[in-house]
Protein 1
Amino acid sequence: MKKLAVLMTIFTFAFALVSCGAETTTAGTGTDTTALDPIKFGVIGPLTGDYSMYGIAVENGAKLAAAEINAAGGLLGTTLDIIAYDSKGDTTEGVNAYNRLIENDEIDALIGGTFSGVTLAFKSLAISDNIPVLTPTATNPEVTLNADNIFRACYTDAYQGSVAAVFTAETLNATNVAVMYNRDDAYSEGLADAFMDEFDARDLDYTAFEFGASDDDYNAILTNINNGGYDAVFLPAYVAEVGAILTQASNLGLDIPFVGGDGWDGIEADYASVAEGFYFANHYAKTDTADAVQNFVANYTAEYGEAPNALAALAYDAVYAMAQAFTEAGSADADDVITALAALEFTGGVTGSLSFDENGDPIKSITIIQVVNGEHVVAAKVEA
Amino acid sequence: MDLLVQQLINGLTVGSIYALVAIGYTMVYGIIKLINFAHGEIMMFGAYFAFIFAFMFPFDLPFVLIIIISMVLSGLMGILIERIAYKKLRKAPRISALITAIGMSIFLQNLALLIFGATPKVMQPLITGDPLILFGYNISRLTLTTIGLSIFFMIALTLFVRKTKPGKAMRAVSQDQEAAQLMGININKIISLTFAIGSALGALGGIFYAMTYSQIAPTMGVMPGLKAFIAAVFGGIGNITGAMIGGYIIGFIETFTKGYISSKWVDAIVFGLLILILLVKPSGLLGKNTKEKV
């Protein structure tokens, strides 16, 4: 009898493990009164796993925008559906998700992928399928190169890294900086490279400190930084790593400012005390008083019970921008939509106005945020 | 000089944690000749237990009580795992038990994933306050507690194994199970006790690991578990003192590689060391060279 109970428990867990892997969701359908098929936007992001906070934010932001568009009368006389699939942040899973969206769901446009690596993995497929792609958050420069149908709503790693360098050099007056980055992550390395290029161009000093994705112990590196007499530390990484690093830095009594990129977004939720006074480049500030920002923050918080991060804001803007391109094209025809995207003048977005250069990269402003008493405060705004 | 002392302290912190976890590997191996690959997961569960009692419990518990409760719960978990998964396999070929241990490790990771979710939990250091100044160096209270408590428990364990009756029984079982049984030792009880002590110390290591590096995740036990395993092999698997020394050596190697060479080389050097030991002295630093019985 005991044995049976144990076996039953094991089977229950095993089954639960299997079944939770296949979760998919759709939303924004509303009541479909028209005879036309709904227009479908696909979303690909890490909805489970270590990076699920990013994918879920993108899904939520996209669905909020779609719900608002549907409530205001829909798109091209029909409704707008968002179909989100999980990439787990993994390139193979991402390509599988892409194929499902194209073949099973027959989407009209893609808002994704969330990560650069995943987006690069399905880039060549997306080019041959000629599907309009507007990635809200993939910052790697390669994503939009030599691809007429691929656009992005966020600025690139390189642009962000050099703006952070300009800020560190000019506003913080730093002449000798420690650059600490994750060598296993293209995003982290991309920002660090651009930062160091800008410092080279200004003839300022820096030292690079690498760490690996599997590291938990940063004390040895931070001890070296503490003893190196640096004016600031540039740390382009994601929240989970940044939080661990800042906690250890504070335990060691490190007393120099840290500067980061948009991967820091959300740092104040769990690490407000150790990130106090530090700076990072971001797409928008929650505390911005513009109507578009405040309405978005209020609606998002009401819908999901938490304040939106920058990824949610970018996805929200990306859906609105894509919807505007559909309206201007007057149809869901891929070629017309791509032409409309290339000429788009999208204004009033949460993350600012949006138009695209010849590569499909955005021309938009960049905000430097300082964490003050656990809140985001705009420290500087740099126009492109 | 300053830098060297600070790096030594860093190494001592990591080393203490590895040593605590390595003891669990080595004790279990000493008794039933099993590499318990689920040990890293016990470490992880120990950290989650501490998190639950520190931050999700309606009352504020003192730090010592949180540690004791987590260690007791992890000890019970160790006993339970042995009873469910390993007991039936004591007479089975060793490879079967080893594969069961790997299965147990994956099962526990996924169990934690199911219960706690993938998002890492943020572990505030439960020991706060200004750093203390010792010999002119600023040392955080957490670091001091980690090193101090680890050494305390290691001394206590050594005394327990050497001076007490259950300790003597433990040594007897590790030398010859059947002979020990003939002398009236209850083998099942001793094996359970071994798992309980090993798991409790592993949990303590997990709690310090989580506090020092501020995060708890279902996969957090994998890497430190592997490193502690290397420490146990380095010191001579089955030898408790060897595991402690091995833990500290691996801790120092890691820290000094990161501090003076590059963090790129850490894993290459540590795992390269494992291969080197297995080639040069397979029985480890303090291990005895025994012939395999056929």
Protein 2
Amino acid sequence: MLKQIQLFLFFFLLGIVANAQQKKVYVHGYVEDAEKRERIAKANVSIVDQKMGTQTNTYGFFSVGLIPNQRQTLVISTVGFKTERLSITLSKDTLLTVFLFPESQQLEEVEVKDKVPPHEQVLGGFHQLSAKTIEKTPALLGETDALKTLQLLPGVQNGKEGTVGLNVRGGSPDQNLILLDGVPVYNINHLFGFLSIFNNDAIANVDFYKGGIPARYGGRLSSVIDVSMREGNKKTYNTKISLSPVASRFLFEGPIVKDKSSFLLSIRRTWLDALTTPIAVISKSDFRSVFKFYDVNFKLNYALSPKNKLYVSYYTGRDGLNNTIKFNDGTSRYNYNWGNNTFVVRWNHLYNQRIFGNLSVSYTNFDYTLQNEVKEVKTFQSRFTSGIRDWSIRYDWDIFPSANHTLKTGISATAHRFSPEIQQIKSGQSDTIYKPQNSIDAVELVAYVEDEFKIGAKFSANVGLNASFYQVGQRSFINPQPRVSLNYALSERNSLKFSYGHFAQYLHLLSNSSIGLPTDLWVSATERIPAQLSNQVSLGYYQSLFENRFNVSIEGFRRNMQNVIEYREGASFLNSSTVGWEDKVTVGEGKATGIEFLVQKNTGKWKGWLSYTLSKSERIFSDLNRGVAFPYKYDSRHNIALTLNYEWSKNKTFSCNFFYNSGIPLQISTAKFNGVSPSRLVKTVGFLGPYRPDEYYSYFNELGLLSDRNTFRAPAYHRLDVSYRSVKPMKNGNRVWTLGVYNVYSRNNPFYLYYDKNQLKQFSLFPIIPSFTYERNF
Amino acid sequence: MNAIFEMSKAGAIIIALLFLQGCVKTVDLPDNVFKKQVVAVGTPNPDSVLSVRLTYSLRPDTAAVYQGITNAEVSFMEDGVVLGKVSNAPKGVYSFNKRPVAGKRYAIRVNVPGFDEIYAEDSIPQAPRVISSKFASNPNNPNSSPDFELRITNYAFTQTPIWFGIYSTRKVRGVKPGSPTGEVTPDIFYEYISTANLGLLSNSQYLDRFNSFFDGLSGKYSFGDPARVDPVSTTFDPNPVIRYTIVNQIKKEDQVFTYSFAASAGYDRYLKSSIMAYQNRLLDASGALNNPFAEPTPVYSNIKNGLGIWGAYNAKRTVLQ
């Protein structure tokens, strides 16, 4: 760790030395969408004459230094907007708002050289997806999804078929920091994970970090998925209504004070229950199952003054499954429901042309409840709940000491409350409140500093330190986490990138399944189960070809993880309810190595990318697999993803995706053998009479010999999806039809493998599924 | 009703809903996955002579039946001294006319042509000191069943986990069907003694609840057969008293008894792991989903170079009046 800190100090001081610049004047301000007046994050602002530049921050703010009294050209660009060139001469610091116009002519050859190609970005393994990119990606049941689009990127593996679970560079799903307007979201699943909670109507863009993760992010080991909600149109009121096979969506946005403040409200709700409930009533079935989900995104921004702006973001969403079974003398009801709430108030304050501040106060929670009620002669009720909630306060400063130098620093304090397992049982005979685990409170304090700078024309870096303190009970953890990202430009078209990061995670996720069932338990690091730690290094080569029309990259990574957890052999969420979670898990280590290839085509009628990842991910636990290392459950050696988008006219788009993942590892029985029945007295009578062998007693006649952990490989997964999108301008707004086909050639991909009647069988979930989506906005 | 069990059922319903959409196909198990091994199963105890059954393991995707290994040579040992050798047992069951004694270590050394030598050993624990009692009927119990009590005296004496169950025996009339017309071979009626587990219900803190579920209607935990006394819970009380009742109805003609046994550490581990494997199976015997959340559960074996279990125990049967 000492070496890591020394390395950090070296690069940090290097950045400070590099800051010795001549006196300048500063142009600072915001970049906004000219049509909607929404601020644009991560827009590139460069000074052509000085070959320098910066990017807007999350709130669209930038600040660059210019040589006084000299005509200079400022170029502002970002994906999806026309590039703006400003020729300016300044004698003093100036506040400026730059408006970018959306690329309305989609076939137009834009000046791609003005975009920031990947080889010029400091951070390796960084991707930004816009809402437009996401909406053009073919999707299951027509519901476009940000997280499923991320699954097309190199180094990202999906979990089970059709689900939104992400395994990044050999990590587990809980190791991804998923933020919605800066607030962590603990459960991303709708509809058992087949949809994510992110409604694309409300999303502005998604920033995805998996290599060089800047110091401002902390608390997770593998990646950061930073989802920004749209601000809402500041000019006009817009309404959008959408209908897909599973849900309907409604969006309403508009100005509060024209050109200054706005709001956005987006609601999504499934209508599956509206279909299934009448069917059950008409059929007079004894079994009724009703599933529903909804989510609401609300955002409000209000300009208090030119230097102060207030943002309020709120998300709430919930899923619920109700099953009712009628039997002779009574009824049995099950209710599962789970959901998240996030709420954040942010106050932007511009101190001066070089210092931008943001205060955030946020709340997030995830909880689920499983309820069971049986009404017979007697009544029985049980209720099982679990949850996590955080209150957090955070202050961030963006400091722009020079055009080549961007400093970010901040502090935060978070109060976590974990309620991992609370069960209440009430029956005719007894009233029991049973709490295997009391709620656990923890405090997490974080301070970070991060410096992005350039030295000369070839070398740029992002160097930072994230220091965290975590207190739970009598146990405390302190983890300084240095982060270094370096970019060395070999020429104007190619560069080498290196990243190193140390990461600490104080949360663990207990999950038996990756299919998004509402049974995930978030638990805190404790005396017995320490914080997860990780080190990652990556080295990449980035090249742009044909005037930036193509970007190619190859990046290798290696990461090791300490204190990762797995369920002990035989443990289950459903069994041994009297055993605390710490006794159900075991602590071990993990390592992952891989190499990622990416080819992107950014312009022309055909756009898209092809990614290939060759990787290996292992875990080792002294209590599992006799202490021998075994493949991680989503270790897939080869992953190929292709996404193509063909725009054959202004309003007609054809898209397709193709995935290939080599088989994931499984542990299955490789032999069966005679055992001994636990009961020494009760015998099965089999053929002798009308009695069937009792399942329990006969089970032990045929025990399974499990293979070494995860040594068997499931068949490969591959799939092709296509979609066609047609936009028709109307008198007022436009109408959009999207027709899609999921799994075009109806591949039977493995979802589960199991033995049944002396045969190994594979269950496949989704055959070919056509879908449509209708949208109307006005 | 069982909350956890019902959650499992509801979980199964969720998956079942998903399954409605999907399809199933048979997958070939690669030939190199299966390795034929010798399976040795024996439970040395003072109530029977030393015996081990030898079979071969089978591919998991075959319907073939287990065949006893008839050409093996088995050496039985007591505290490291060879008692004798037995070879070529016709049905694969190799027995030596010696009843094990508590406190002694018994081992087997098995040689099967074409396989590595198999070895296993285990020590016979002391018999449990238990007193079983039956009390008057209790209208609060299912079927107004009586309350029962198992009193363990000096638990530390056995130094091994104790398992127990409550059973009844009764005469049952069976029929072996003849031909459909009854003319060629008529139905054969016969009587035999059937032993049934009575289903143990208890909230005793001394019982290990790993194979139990909470029965909401009785307000007690319902245990599988047999129940395990949790050695950890007896650390502070070496003379635990376990109170319980039963699920099933007792008839007048039934003989009710408890069967308690002290299991060696290895046998205890085998029993617990095999029962957990049963609980964690993905599908039940009818092919319906049982537990979608379970982790793979290997069954413990103490057989070196083979499979199975050589697990020692010492039992006590107590008839309840």
